[in-house]
Amino acid sequence: MQTSSHDPLLNEILHHTQTDPHKRASGLSDFILGAQDGLVNVLGVVLGIAAATNDVRVVLVAGLATTFAESISMGAVAFTTTLADADLYQSEREREYRHIIEAPNLETKEIRDIYESKGFKGELLDHIVKTITTNQDVWVAVMMAEEHQLAPVDRKSAVKAAWVVGLSAIIGSLVPIAPFMFLSVATSMWMSVLVTALTLFAIGAYKARMTVGKPMRSGLEMAVIGTLSAMAGYLVGVLLKVPAVP
Description:
Elements: H1 8-19, H2 28-53, H3 56-102, H4 104-117, H5 122-134, H6 136-147, H7 157-177, H8 185-210, H9 215-239
Helix pairs in contact: 2-3, 2-7, 2-8, 2-9, 3-4, 3-6, 3-7, 4-5, 7-8, 8-9
């Protein structure tokens, strides 16, 4: 039997898979973390050094040194943080297995309380509780998700997170440095602020499009917050300005 283009089920399938599909997990948060950190921190450094010394070579050295030191540091933090999340999940999972063996009545009551709070009652609630507690793996999985609000973390993803954060930090860091390679210090300072703000805006707008929120508002928020944060470096440079040599 052929399916009509007016078949409600077909239309729903097309909407579900093509028009409005679910977004798969990606490294978006890692990319934003690295890029935003590189943009803001290095902008603050180059503005501060430029304001203090007015020497383009010093600015470039300081900016590049910060770029690579920070990218390695950020990548390492992403790696160890992901491993820590994986270890936490595994530790709590093993603890739940021990609990359902050593305190099964209490753990059963917790399952009942969870689903009762969702509105299930009577025989249906009894059936749900019995079905879940019959299988230890299902029981533990439900407790991890519902009680502890923890999702499994693949330890292999730690390497991916480190690479994404580290590389995006390098890319983001090079944006505020680039103007100093071609323009005078005074002009580069303004250009650096401008291109960094525009890049932060683009990242914020892209994040909103990929998740939720209004692209314009998200972009402006990220641009304003990031630029104002970097201004702290400029103020330090102005306050500690190196006197010109006669």
